[in-house]
């Protein structure tokens, strides 16, 4: 996920790495350490495994299409956004 050139960028006509994402990095850090794992961290793992499965079963499918399908089943972006919104809400109180 962090090291492989996993996605094909049609605009640049190259395979490249994912764009950096702070929420994913934080989820990954908690998972590696096995400490304070949040529900959305586990959703990230499920999402990525399912996305890889889709791409393996349908190699002709574009990465973005597999991502959309995986997000329909395991919606990490929504869960992560909700988590970080709740942190902001608590800080304001």
Notes on the structure:
This protein has 93 residues and is mainly α. The protein has one domain (7-92). The chain has helices at residues 22-33, 39-57, 63-73, 76-92, and strands at residues 7-9, 14-16. A hairpin with a 4-residue loop joins β1 (7-9) and β2. α1 crosses α2 (39-57), α2 packs across α3 (63-73) and α2 packs antiparallel against α4. The model has no long low-confidence stretch (mean pLDDT 86).
Distance separating the two termini: 36 Å
**Tally of individual domains:** 1
Q: Order of helices and strands, N to C?
A: EEHHHH
Task: Write down how many β-strands occur, each being a DSSP E stretch of 2 or more residues.
Answer: 2
Task: Calculate the mean pLDDT score and round it.
Answer: 86
Number of helices: 4
Strand fraction:
5-15%
pLDDT under 50 segments (min length 5)? none
Largest sheet, strands/sense/barrel:
2 strands, antiparallel
* Helix percent band: 55-70%
Strand order within the widest sheet?
1-2
SS content category? mainly alpha
Shape descriptor reads elongated
Kindly provide the radius of gyration, computed on alpha-carbon positions and rounded to a whole number of angstroms: 15 Å
Oligomeric state, counting identical vs distinct chains? single chain
